[in-house]
Amino acid sequence: MSIVAHPLDPLTADELRRTADIVRKERGDVSYIFNSMTLKEPAKDVVMGYFNYDSSLPKVTEIEREALVVLIDRPSGLVHDITVSLTKDKITEWIKTEGQQPTVNALEMIEAEQAMKKDPKVIEECRKLGIMNMDQVFIDPWGIGWSNIKGKRLVQAICYLRTSPDDNQYAHPLDFNPLYDVNEQKVLDIIVAKRRNSKFERPTIPMANHHFLPEHLGEENLRKDLKPIQIIQPEGVSFTIRGKEIAWQKWNMHIGFNHREGLVLSNLTYKDMDGSVRPLFYRLSLAEMVVPYANPYEPYNHKMAFDVGEYGMGFLSNSLELGCDCVGSIYYMDAILNDLKGDPWVIPKAICIHEEDSGLLFKHTDYRSGKAHSARSRRLVISHIVTAGNYDYGLYYYFYQDGTIQFDVKATGELNTQVLAEDEAAAPYGTIVAPQIDAQHHQHLFSFRVDPMVDGIKNSVAETDVVPSEHPVGHPDNMVGNGFKAVTKVFNDTDEAQGVASLEKHRSWKIINENRIHPYAKQPVGWKIHNPSPPTLLAKPGSIVHERAIFATKNLWVTKYHRDQKFPAGYHIYQSDPKLNLGIPQYIKEKKSVRNESIVVWITFGLTHIPRVEDFPIMPVDIVGVQLKPTNFFMGNPGIDIPLSNKVSTKSAYASANVNSCCGKTNL
Fold first, then answer.
1. Any catalytic annotation for residue 307?
2. Which residue stretches of 60-144 are H helix?
3. Is 493 assigned a catalytic role?
4. d(Cα 56, Cα 598) in Å, to the nearest integer?
5. Is 239-472+480-631 assigned to CATH 2.70.98.20?
6. Would you say the pTM of this structure is higher than 0.85?
7. How does DSSP classify residue 339?
């Protein structure tokens, strides 16, 4: 039997060992690897019935504990999807999945780099470029996108040079890409990038260093005028944690983690001013992302990283450093994943939890008396950071005292670079960020999966456009021509429930519960989706990346909930065939009702990155994200009961004088 505190808790180290033992006993041989082992989450209605989030659902008292295991045979590459019941201590389902490939485990990538550096073909190509010491060569394995080579688990490797062990390798890109089979652990081919509009057949490798580490820059070159900033909470933090559940202010939620999505938040509730606990969101996660590059020439036209589905944000997670990645009074959670042998793999301090000041929550000054009242906003931050090859992504959930939820991605790290010949131009598909170093144009498009339970399991989605009055100036209903209004429609089915942002129409979407009408607004209670970063996929229809990433062609999709539909580009997507249209196209292939149903909302946001010289040698964070804001849900501002802030509670002081002041006193 498996006894856990919460049905959505990730698998423990003991459960991983038990799961692997059950599979090994059944399998018998050793010609395979454990690609992943993760909790097979119970169905939404089961968990909601267990916690009594919706009185219309049957009460559930016990939930079976299950693990989902993915094995890969070596060298054949056959994939096995196995369900293990930890409650019953046995395998309950074993599916052999042909023609599909799961995530590339981070340990597989390390194996691949080591093998390629020893390969004679790679060594010979380095010799042609004058590189004699293979310890100087570093190789980033990338997904191939899709290939006509069948039955192989391939990576296209991008090669670089380092002049010292911790040099910035992206300042020294090489001009060839090995094609490597991860299962056979063998280099199949070497692809040398052709020069375009150049008199040179091969470029020289740029050897100028472009450092960013302080020890390389030199202490004498670092700023000397920064004074310390201290963040203290003398009475401790305002949140409490029990197992994987956290309570903060009026929020309560469960914190989960898996190899693919990384951080997952579930069972989000908010305590209303009357004391009632209202269910809001069953599950929130970064379900997929795609990073398509713009260079249309071989081998760069296969650069289309799906970092969630192809590599796994959990597998790529960092161990966070106090005072660097997280500042203040910090609570950490470890992540427990699996290695290729099926043993537990612990990432210490993978999740950071803390509070921070976030400016004003609200303020008003009475201009007659001069009396002002200000409330400072505090937010709870739950975050983790992943390194996906050259890029680093900080993934942040913010919870505010007025009920707002914000999910931000902070993109940083290194530009993915390619080498140019001395006479070669980067335009029109890239930017020269240093001599002979081309940073290619690309996009970062994220799919945020929102599984709502707004005041119950049955929800709908409404689209609102703000438009001018249809009446001309001088009409009795628009005498001076200033009229405009919000026009709302509720999506009925999956054919309708697809949306693209419109700045001209000030378009927005709301997740609503049509069974709960607000007594003041006379509208369904709901949560508004605010998406200020709404680019969509630029690659043309028919292209490999377009057909593999249909989810990124629109900003909003709504599907009917299904336990197994968690990923908008599909489940096993590594080298996915573009003709299969996996993920959302499959989920909506049959028209289904999404009105007053258990639904899932998929939000696409991101950025189109035209690199700047200032993004090199290391990129300052570029922040994109979405917000979920209560709309006609509460009876007023839910943060109105925030205590008064003042110089005592915030330890604030003038830089040059000690003058009494208070956020609620008269200023005149």
1. yes
2. 106-117, 120-128
3. no
4. 12
5. yes
6. yes
7. -
